[in-house]
Amino acid sequence: MEIISSYNLIIEVSLIIVFSFLFNGLSKRTNIPAVLMLIVLGVVLQYGLIFANAGEIDFFPVLEILGIVGLIMIVLEAALELELKREKLMPILKSMAVALIGLVASAWVAALILYQFIPTMTMQSAWLYATPLSILSSAIIIPSVTELKGHKKEFHIYESTFSDIIGIMMFYFLTGKLNPAEDSGVVGFTGNLLLTIVIALIASYAIILIFQKIKSNVKLFLLIAVLLLLYAVGKKMHLSSLIIILIFGLVIANMKLFFQGKLTKFLDYNKAHHIYHELHTITAETAFLVRTFFFVIFGLTIAITSLFDLNVALISTLIILTIYAIRFVLLLIFVGKDIVPQLFIAPRGLITVLLFYAIPVEAQIAEFNQGILLFVIIGTSLIMTFAMIYDKRRSSKAINLAKSRKVGSVTWKAPTIDHS
Predict the structure, then answer these.
(1) Looking at the domain that runs over 2-359+370-396, which CATH code has it been given?
(2) 373-408 b/e with 16+ CB inside 10 Å = b?
(3) Range 325-343 average pLDDT
(4) Domain range annotation of the chain
(5) How far apart are CA 91 and CA 387, in angstroms?
(6) CA 296, CA 291: separation in Å to the nearest integer?
(7) Are 222 and 278 in contact (CB under 8 A)?
């Protein structure tokens, strides 16, 4: 069929990348998340395929792979930005506390709402459906907060990264509860976590020491392949694989901290730092590419008509309201009164979609409308957009006011006339 010919596919893929680049530029000017524009582009393509009689296309396998690779790249990209310094310990702990408590509290309330409004929903299934809806999207947050002040930007990078990792661990802990034979309980879960951290540290040191000795210029995709391999093998071993990626990113971004004492003689800092610099670039580029196709394909698969279901709107609105109510209380406790725009930066996205499709068959509820997923993603993204626009205008007014005060404080002094 002509519509899926190789040349048409190349043209379509190239145009999607070009549009995504333009959306990023437009996002910086308007504060509308590029992710929303990509989803809209996917919806437009969906109707284009219907109009062209392309037939049914199963995008799920591609969506799943893109989601996993995108998740790895986004977490690695975030980890490479994190500096581990003594003065950053409190901001890291605060953001972790907000992420953890916010995730558990939001999931609990969302589970109660789903259990109450969907007749066939069991409480166990409600928790599994509620968890993806309670995880912050680092895929949306990290590119969106670049304009914020340093400490606010750092808070969101830490918080969204922790939310991703803790949320995924919590989701798979809950899925383990479905099968009593495989359920290892809290003790087994803690042991699994500690084992993952030990493996992650050993692997991180080994990768850096080996790759600094590789003389070939073509080694970055080899490094990414090794990380993907570690993630996949870790998943097969039922480890918290995302922690392996996070720890590797932290180790290579903070080499002077991790290579101290006798370990310093094994590290060629200049070569290792060069790997870090190039990895930073290629990770950002890969994350951009994967994020682009993930959300476009998500747009291709969603049913827009589900948004106009009254029950979907009611359930989704209640979940969104509780998300911000819980967040408001937590930010007041851990951050203080200066919580704008942080309060409203809580979008759902890539992880939400990825984990939703990972809900085991035995826990799936046919009456759950996927429109809830879409409604919450779009709703939280739009709220973030308006908050970012408001904050930008507020900052501009403050700067202009400061400038006018500075100009007004300069008094004119008449020149003295010498009459002699």
Answers:
(1) 1.20.1530.20
(2) bbbbbbbbbebbbebbeebeeeeeeeeeeeeeeeee
(3) 94
(4) 2-359+370-396
(5) 22
(6) 9
(7) no
